[in-house]
Amino acid sequence: MGEIVETSGDAHPVVIEATGVGIRFRRNKRGRRSFKDLLASRARRSRPDEFWALRDAGFTVVAGEAIGVVGRNGQGKSTLLRLVAGVLLPDEGRVEVRRGVAPLIEITGGFVDDLSVRENVFLTAGLHGMSKADIAARFDEIIEFAELDGFVETPYKHLSSGMKVRLAFSVVSRLEEPIMLVDEVLAVGDKAFRAKCYRRIEELLAGGRTLFFVSHNERDLRRFCTRGLYLDGGRLVADGPIDEILARYAADHPTDVTGA
Amino acid sequence: MPRRRAISPPAGRGAARADRPEPYDDTVTASTAPAAAVRATYGRALWLLTVRDLKVRYSTSALGYLWSVIDPLVMAFMYWFVFGVVFQRPVGEEPYVVFLLTALLPWMWFNGAVGDSTRAFLRESKLIRSTRIPRSIWVARLVLSKGIEFLASIPVIAAFAIATGATLHWEAVLVPLGIAMQAALTLGVGLIVAPLVVFFRDLERATKLVLRVLFYATPIVYGLPDLDRIGLGGWAALNPLTGIISVYRSAFFPEHLDWFAIGVGAAISALALALGILVLRRTERAVLKEL
Question: Of A77, A119, B2, B108, which residue is the least packed, with the fewest Cβ within 10 Å?
């Protein structure tokens, strides 16, 4: 018992592999910088005006896992997610992502004010790798989920901010990618739509998607995730079942649990 | 719907569990795909963004396409007035309008793409922060959309050539060579400028200034023979645009075909492209952090 009938090769292959990942940022964003500095190789030593947002992080994720990233603000959670999404590149180590990714990070970022809702859907979904035919086939579904019937030809800039978020979530959550990255997007939108988003994420999880989830909400983390990564001070301090991770986090930061 | 949290796995080891759904896997994706598929993805993203550029430009202006015609026409009229009527100096060739447009239209492609590339990353920072498409696309799309506008304005040259009775020569078959050289040069310069502007904002103004100087340093309102007459012809070849424009111009003025300038221009264009790719590769990490 317990053996999954394997259809092709390994049923649960490693889809994300991070080894010794480190990335540093400048403390002072407007600081001076020289050409020499910029073009120098990345193997230099850390300089005083820089800090490591994340260092020595290593973990592997197999297909179908749902991982919650836990930690206080500024401990490297979003940075880790961006590294997995491939929109930041590590200064040390490597992040290998072996399947396509649907990043629900800054989801409204790709939309263009002057284009219509229809044009924007085709543009954003296309940039995330969906073919024109796929988008056309799912177009009605996307609009319906976003509750934007009748706004298809409206310029994006005339949508309300709630509509924009709904549209963005609807598009990105329809991407046929095996890995989903979710960064606190669920904090926005009204209650009813949030519930709908949750159901959608659960549907995708039931369909076998791999989830990488960043949230401060303990209930959400318990609801979606099986495994937790605990980041503190830019280090991966714990990796284990989500309940254990949350218990440890609560012990380290007692005030956070009550939301005080 | 299975309750996800009911299972408590040995973290990270990925032991197969019966109660877990079969992983969703569409096998061929951007990160695992062979080179051909990667190239197709690159092409598609590039095309999407180029079309978006053109759509935005034309959906927000009433005259749309006409602007890419009106602009060079007004400029051509001005230069004709200044150099042909006021100064009465015999520069260039007759018909002067055709002579001017064969250089002015390509110049506008170069000028527009390089000028816009100063903001290639800054303007699209939100989108760059949320998609993983290769970063060179943000510059390449500018070169492509301005290049398409250039191609779309070629009928203007044709119309003036017919109206003034200029004759087309066999050298017109070299036009694709000019386009290839110019595309390489423009992309290369854009790839150098775009990432560096992210760190040195002054470079944006410096680039605009250099472009203005370059306009007069390139045989556009005058011809290469005009430089030869004052002994600067050899130096002019160091400007890769000299060779490129010599190619375009030779379609109507075959005596302007200068293979030395073309050779130097091609070498410099290839060098610029290689350097651009290197600069982007070296600065990519830092650019992504800065956006």
Answer: B2
**pLDDT, tens only, B67-94:** 778 888 888 888 888 877 888 767 778 8
Residue with tokens 């007459």: B229
* Digit-coded pLDDT (tens) for B184-239: 999 999 999 999 999 888 899 999 999 999 999 999 988 888 888 888 877 888 99
3-state secondary structure of B170: helix
ipTM over 0.90: no
Q: Residue A149, SS3?
A: coil
Whether the Cβ atoms of residue A134 and residue B74 lie closer than 8 Å to each other: no
Question: At A39, is the pLDDT very low, low, confident or very high (cuts 50, 70, 90)?
Answer: low
- Per domain, the residue ranges of chain B are 35-290
Q: How far apart are CA B11 and CA A255, in angstroms?
A: 27
Sign of CA dihedral B59, B61, B62, B64: negative
Judge: A106–B130 Cβ closer than 8 Å, yes or no: yes
* Distance between A233 CA and the closest CA of chain B, angstroms: 19
Which residues on A lie below 8 Å from B196 (Cβ)?
35, 38
In B, minimum Cα distance to A224 occurs at B4
Tokens of B275: 């350097």
Query: What number of other Cβ atoms are within 10 A of residue A55's Cβ?
Result: 21
A40 CB contacts (<8 Å, ≥6 apart)?
A: none
Contact indicator for B287, B203 with CB cutoff of 8 Å: no
Which range has highest mean pLDDT (A42-56, A178-192, B56-70, B109-123)?
A: B109-123
Confidence (pLDDT) at A144: 92
Q: Domains plus CATH for chain A?
A: 14-100+213-258 (3.40.50.300)
Residues 6+ apart with CB under 8 A from A153: A116, A117, A118
At A174, give phi and psi (nearest 5°). Answer: -90, -5
* Chain A residues inside the 8 Å CB shell of B288: 87-89
Q: Provide the whole-model pTM.
A: 0.84
How far out from the chain centre does Cα A254 lie? 26
Q: CA gyration radius for chain B?
A: 24
* pLDDT top residue among B29 and B245: B245
Measured CA to CA, the distance from residue A182 to residue A68 in angstroms comes to 10
Residues of chain B neighbouring A7 (CB-CB closer than 8 A): 22
Contacts of A60 in chain B (CB under 8 A): 12, 14
Q: Which of B25, B39, B283 to mutate to test the interface with A (most CBs of A within 10 A)?
A: B25
Angle between the N-to-C axes of helices B137-164 and B67-79, in degrees from 0 to 180, rounded to the nearest 10: 60
Q: What is the mean pLDDT of chain B?
A: 84
Of A38 and B37, the one with more pLDDT: B37
Q: Which amino acid is at B185?
A: L
Distance between CA atoms of residues A143 and B216, nearest Å: 52
Stronger pLDDT, B3 or A255, i.e. the higher one: A255
For the purposes of burial, counting CB atoms within 10 Å of the CB of A229, is it exposed (0-12), middle (13-18) or buried (19 or more)? Answer: buried
